[in-house]
Amino acid sequence: MKNGSDIYYMNDSYWMVSSNANTLSLTSDSSFWAVYPLLEMPLSTIKSILGEKFPYERLLKSAINEGSEYWLKLALNWLEYMPGNELNPFVLALGNILKDKRYPQECRHISGRLIKKSNLNECNGS
Q1: N or C: at which end does the chain have fewer Cβ atoms within 10 angstroms?
Q2: Neighbours of 30 (CB within 10 A)
């Protein structure tokens, strides 16, 4: 990562983030803050580096639920580049964003477009 951290897959079971001072395993949703800076790079670039085994869904869900408008916008940007069927796990969270006027209008509009692009909608609770 650009902040000097390394990300690697450990023993075919879990992902680790290592920096000069710390090593953190990405085993719980609360640990994904350490890799939020990945969202600042294009999804295609990250996928070419980390491959398909990386838990992108967990990273995105963590960033969406984190509460920061900055990380939310970056997560939504990644979601815009994903095919519709890969958006299904995010529909409930996107529906919540769409309905909540505390989120910026831009985020609500993007959420609405992503819901329409998915194979589901926020009304069916999936």
Answers
A1: C
A2: 9
90 exposed, middle or buried (CB, 10 Å; 0-12, 13-18, 19+)? buried
Residue 35: Cβ-neighbour burial (10 angstroms; 0-12, 13-18, 19+) = buried
pLDDT in tens, 66-120: 989 999 999 999 999 999 999 999 999 999 999 999 999 999 999 999 999 997 7
Do residues 87 and 79 lie in contact, with contact meaning Cβ atoms separated by under 8 Å? Answer: yes
Max distance between CA atoms of the chain, in angstroms, equals 46
pTM of the complete model: 0.85
Q: How many CB atoms lie within 10 A of CB 110?
A: 21
State how far Cα 55 lies from the chain centre: 9
Q: What does the block give as tokens for 115?
A: 């819901």
Mean residue pLDDT of the chain comes to: 89
Phi–psi pair at 16, nearest 5 degrees: -125, 150
Is residue 40 within 8 Å of residue 78, measured between CB atoms?
Answer: no
